[in-house]
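Each field is set out underneath.
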Amino acid sequence: MRFPESDGGSVALRRRQIPCRLIRTESYLCSFLPTSDLLVFALQSELRSRLGWAVIRAIYDGLSDFQVRRFEGMGFGPFLRLEELALDVALIQALKERWDPECHAFLFPWGHMVPTLEDVVRITGLRVDGQAVTGTTYTSYQELVERLLGLEVRGERSSLVQRTVLQASLGVVSARRQTGEEQAEHMERMTDDARAEMAEEEGEAADRDLRWFLTLVIGKMILGTRGDPVGCRFLPLLEDLSSMGNYAWGAALLAHLFDSLGTSSRETGVSGFFPLLQVWAYYHLPSLGRGVARRCGAVPLLQLWQFCRDERSLRRQVTLIHDALDTVPFGHVQWTPYVGEDDATQPWVKRGRPYFGRDIWLHCFNTVVPLHHRPVAQTLGLHQAVRSWERPGHSFRGIQQVTDWTVRVREQLDDWERRGKEVVSEAASDEDYFRAYARKYGAQVYKGSRRPLDPEERISSLEGILHSTIQQRDDLQAVVDQLREELDCAQQMVGGPSSSREDPGRSVLEGQLASAAARAEDALAQLRERELRTALARTTMLEAEMAELRLRPEAAEVARWRQEAEAVARWQQEAAEATHWRLEVEEAVRLRAEAGDLRTQMGEERHRGDMLRSEMRGLERALALVGRSRSVTSRSGIPSGYAGHYLTGSSRRRRNEEEERRRRERAPEGSESGPRVMAPPSPRPPEGTGESG
């Protein structure tokens, strides 16, 4: 269940060279890049804590001896002595992308996995037993902050306190390293500043210093927020400092981390204590090679590891981690990595053991989440059964308000007080689980770019079954070896010096023991032979099926390539046809343009022909007039030499007559002026002739 406050998270992705106001997520920036560049996208990012371990460790080193003893009594001593671990942001991001909020577990090709309370107590040293971290939440924490911490709160409805104010109250005004200052000098300077500010004797001032420091430790590391301010929902628990050691802060840390993993994948920062998840992956998935042991025998186990830095881009690292997770062999997964650990040096593990391996509800005020072991029974060394993988209970979000969670979630709180319910195995093998897991999740468990071709997910299922069979064989071998050792011890006892005289009943007991030992030896031999034969036959059968199934993807690849080749040939043919039609269209356009030019030329030629016809008709009329004038001349005796002049005169005469006619039509009636009749010109006598006398 999630009942959120208005808090943020302890860590955030800091992006270099790119303004965070313009780009909020990597997916938004990657949308501007070509697809081929997504896998090599070199966005420089790192997971940055608002308040690092260095400041808290420096303040802790500056505490007085009596304050250190008080922290040891509360159970925070092992946690505060941890050394800083560089955060592996790529590993955390890859794991977060594989979190399934429905079943509250990670989805891997080999099955479900989830951090448990045993992981928390062994890695961090925080106690997971005791009272649940719960109580009453308030709309405003102003009164509590002013009364318990002596600080001012700006927002009346805020549940956050400024980190810089708390830090300055403890004497560390600035946590930044000065120019030219080494790390050791920086830590020593902050320690001296804290020691000079905090009280040296018990009293109200010492209690106030203790509350300030607890607010920093719990609000910024155990229940960290995304932003710089510190959450203070737990302030009511600081009212009585003597009871701080009674709460299961490790369980609250795990509940807060689970709730943070269930947020949207678009968020660049997630609240919670990430080093827990990081070291958990180092132990359970050693083949990833993301961490290296730096100190043998160190406890809690978190300070045993250090992160191997990787200079490649964040997106490239995440892709490579997904590829590695998709191809990790089943046998390389460490389901129970703490078998060889020495619990004598870890008393906090002994106290928390009654809570290990049980279905239980985890509490952190308004955050109540289930720790469901049944889907991850393999992490307990049990056979995995097929069960419903949905998350038990319901989740809802409410506004921040005054709520008493001891009443609101009474059923879940009673479950914690009863230490949950023990998880037992009801299956003889993991075969059914692996088959059901492959059917339900299929390709959902694969995130990398080099995902193996397994359409029916049968290869993954058979690999899991094969690994389960090998594991069963190894377990049976271990049982047989143990029983053989006990049998050897019994035989040695039977074969020792006889003392029947001293104890008459001992000889009878030795005989019965020898007979029972012989029968046990025969039964074990038969059991071993039968189990080994069964396991060998099953292994051989599974290997044959896996080999056959591995050939199927190759045939499928060949068929797919053949289909792609045929598709390419069709595309080439269609491209050739398209090219041919494009040439035809271009030719048609060219012919259409030429036809238009020809039409234009024909119009011009037609116009010239009309003009020539008009000229020809004019010439024909002129020739007809010339012919008529010649005939008139021949009849009137006009010499032929004057024919042209006569024609010209006749033409002028006709024009004059036409003008005169028009003038008469325009002249008013009674006008004396009338048309004049022009006498035809007198014909000239031919040359060489005289006038008659």
